[in-house]
Design brief:
The chain is an alpha+beta fold. Helix content is 47%, strand content 11%.
Amino acid sequence: MRDLRPTWRSAWPVLVAIAAIAAVYAPPMLAGKFWAPGDGVIQVAPQRALAGWALAHGEFPFWNPYLFGGMPFFATAQVGMLSPLSWPGFFLALAAATNVTLGLGFAVMLAGFVAFTRTLGLPLLAGATAGTIFALGGFVTWYSGNPAILHALALLPWLLAALERHAQDDRPRWLALAALGATGMVLAGHPQTAAYGLLVAGAYALVRGGAPVSLAARVVALGLGVGMALVQLIPTLDLVAASQRRAISFEWLTIYSVPPLALPTHLFPFLYGSRDPSWLFPVPLWANVDWWGYLESYVGPVAWLLALTALGRWRERMVAFWAGVAAIGLLLTLGHYTPLYRLWALLPFVNQMPYASRHALELIFALAMLAAYGVAWLVERPAAARGALARAGGLLALLMGGMWVALLTYAPGFAARTQPFVDQAPGHPPGLLLASALAITQAAFWVPPLVLACAWLAARFRPGLVIVILAIDLWSFNRHQGVAYILPQAPQDLVLAPALDWSAGRSLTLTAQRYPDCQDCDVLAFLRRYHYPDLTLIWGEPTVNGYDAFLPGRYGRLLGMDSFGHAGEFDPTIWDPPHHALDLVGLGTFRLEPALAGQPAWRRRIASGRWQRLPDADGLVVLRNRTALPHAWRVAAARTLTPQAVDAAVRGQAPFAPLAEALVEEPLPPGRLTPGPAAAWSLSLNRMRVTTDGPGPGLVVVSSGFDAGWRAWDAAGRALPVLRVDALLTGVLVPAGPQTVSLAYAPPRWRLALGLALGSAALLLGLLGWL
């Protein structure tokens, strides 16, 4: 076992790392913004706010009645209900919750890298360098608005540290910590990040070696750690099976593949311009949005210099391991540009996880660890490391020079092949933009070589200064290519007060706009104006559409939704009779832009009898749906059809009168249904109540999304059958006479999931006792 005693008299490298992270993330917060870019403000923050509200009112939120007419909530995973790292944010105001969970994630992450590298016997400078590279590299900063991703990543170095300690002294307690690390990564709430991280950890456990019994124990502990997270995984997998993620195409799987022509951005980060142009990097970002995945892979020339220096120790098993992980990660970021991804697409579970650029996780983590080994070598054995440093610096200098010559020589043709996003730089030919970005007079050309030269000199003579140069480089990248400048202002009046009153009906957001990617624009004002889901969760406004990775598949198909919940994208017939989907889910009002309302198709629709134009609000046209159905009704007849026939009837392709009959997909008990009054209201997120009366048995339809987890019982506690009705809704068979029916929701395999999680914990305890 290596000597783990400190090799530095102070912790100044760690303080530099903390200062570098604070330099990127603290200024926006001090300026009154909260760290929730992109998905953070339009999905994660509102959903976590709703979770906190439910917990504060004594309810564990299994169901979300506000999005898509009702869908599972706990099963969506990204809320991180069972993750201790999420808990502080559930009881704070919206802005404070996002900022606190962000800071907590980075604190755990940096401490994890220090702990892991110290376990390996590396100096503090190595751990601080690795932590800085990973925390400020493109992947983490790009997804920093999603606490589920950040918290899963924060636990990965701790998991590896536990595996390493077990390999060194073979004590069972390290297996327990490794299992808890695996559990925590899954419970953080982002299955894709957890899966990629656990694959790295599993490979590490195998490659690290040791006695066969010890090696097997590490692998089993990781498996049991995942088993303890089945309490979250099983509901999530059930939701995935019913969502649009059930089967995805290879094209979707490889979306945001990093094209080979973008690889030079690893060294020239402003090859395609800057997302936030300044006097230093004035060329605006002009690459096509589909290419933006390359931004996730950046770690800068300093990190590459240190990582390539470490390859001089390639005979060491773990250096070779991390080099292999980096190579595989880099290849996988290429997505459909490499045949390797066809093999990746054969793997179960992970082949349902899109965005090839997210393999930057493995790439950057491996580069961070290689850089740690490189720094340690330069500090501990500088004479031996200088040869490797010279070779690494020479290789990078050669690559930079060759790239610059080639790009300038072939700039026009190169730019044409990138499908430029010319709207961001109107009037400027892409070839000229590229030439301008790499002209010798532009900082985009001379800054990377200058940074490399300074880092090389520091590494040769004063290795401790390398982390300072690294921090400046990554700060500059995040200043111009990061997401800090599109953060929303901290809300002063955004009070969480969900109201479970369905009397106002549901409203549908329809807009030609997308989330604004701009500097100094009022993001919250934009979201409020359009009643943008999921922000409507904050004030308890139920919406027909929403924004969630697990959009219910059948619901999305019948409402013509794309993967982001924009209704009518693929089926504009939903707006016109005889399509029944919007009526069934209870669409009351929705808004659209005047320019869209002025198009011929919408002028015709507004003039029809289905829509009533209300006074404009916030400069938008507001329409009321005259044919919206109530929250509950009782039908006098039911037809049993195949799911395909039911969908066709809902689309208006076959006769269907929703208030008079129900379309079901399983045979009903014999007997005639009787009509009668019915009313429904929500008692809480997970519970509803229905009242009805009739001379005989009846079928009550509730305009709430169907899920197998719904259970119903009468006032005497007798269970009542719950079934899918009209493809989208929940139905309850009730006996004759006046009835008060209670409905409650929990994930359908919740008890099984909890039992398997407890069983895995018991097996882990047994394993530890046996060892």
